[in-house]
Amino acid sequence: MDFSSFTSGSTVAAIGALGTASFGIVDGLKTLPVVGISNSGYAFIQRGIQEFFPEAKRRTAQGDLKILFDTLQGNWINGRELNDQKAIAKSLIKLRLDSTTAPQFSTATGVDKQILSQIGAKMSNNTPLDPAETNVLGRFDLALSAILDDAYQHADQRYRNWSKLTASFVAVLLALAGGATLAEGSKPYLGTAQMWLALLAGVLAAPLAPMTKDIASALQAGVKAAQAFRS
């Protein structure tokens, strides 16, 4: 394989297939309990929840808080739709608003502590809120949404970045291994043009995977146009 072969549609398709296979392998790593790629980014979510429960951590939480953390981590690992995850997290936190949790919730969101405590007590007793309390609850709701959105957006960005990085690493290893199997046994492989081309294919594999078909079609159209022009 020489460098000119990188301009062919079949080569681009093969590189894209390598990228797709690499992402598939990375996706399979989700099954690993602690170091699985799906755990990447969850720390941002836990940090967001700790705004409301400062001393709580998933591994040490007890009772309702443990259920909260386990539910949110389970949704994250399983890749549930991001807006659904935020809605569930928001609902689970608001369910825990009462006169006891109101002070720490007030600190997290910046709303009036006394009024939020009144709201928590009334919500526990199913007592209607007055207009001032309804206004404070609305401000609390907006602040809660902003905190959770920030946490989940950072978590999603971290997960996607680590997935792409890991897939690129896997693609490079697969490409180098494939190049080694094609090299002639009597000749060295390390440092040869064949190895560097395999390395280049591995580096390009992950970025090309989502757009392989478009690039291959564009290359084929370009070749046909050039042939038509020459004829």
3D architecture notes:
By secondary structure, this protein is mainly alpha-helical. The chain has one domain. Helices cover 71% and strands 0% of the residues. The chain has nine helices and no strands. Helix 2 packs antiparallel against helix 7.
Write the topology of this structure.
Layout: H1 9-28, H2 42-49, H3 63-77, H4 82-94, H5 102-109, H6 113-125, H7 131-182, H8 193-208, H9 212-230
Helix pairs in contact: 1-7, 1-8, 1-9, 2-3, 2-7, 3-4, 4-7, 5-6, 5-7, 6-7, 7-8
Q: Briefly, what is this?
A:
The chain has 231 residues and is mostly helical. It is built from nine helices and no strands.
Instruction: Supply the helix-strand structural class.
Output: mainly alpha
Question: Approximately how much beta-strand content do the residues carry?
Answer: under 5%
Number of helices: 9
**Total number of strands:** 0
Low-confidence stretches: 212-216
Rg from C-alpha positions? 26 Å
Instruction: Report the order of strands and helices.
Output: HHHHHHHHH
Query: In total, how many domains does the architecture comprise?
Result: 1
Q: Between the first and last Cα atoms, what is the distance in angstroms?
A: 28 Å
User: What is the overall pLDDT average?
Assistant: 79
State the helicity in percent bands: over 70%
Major sheet size, sense and barrel closure: none
Shape: rod-shaped
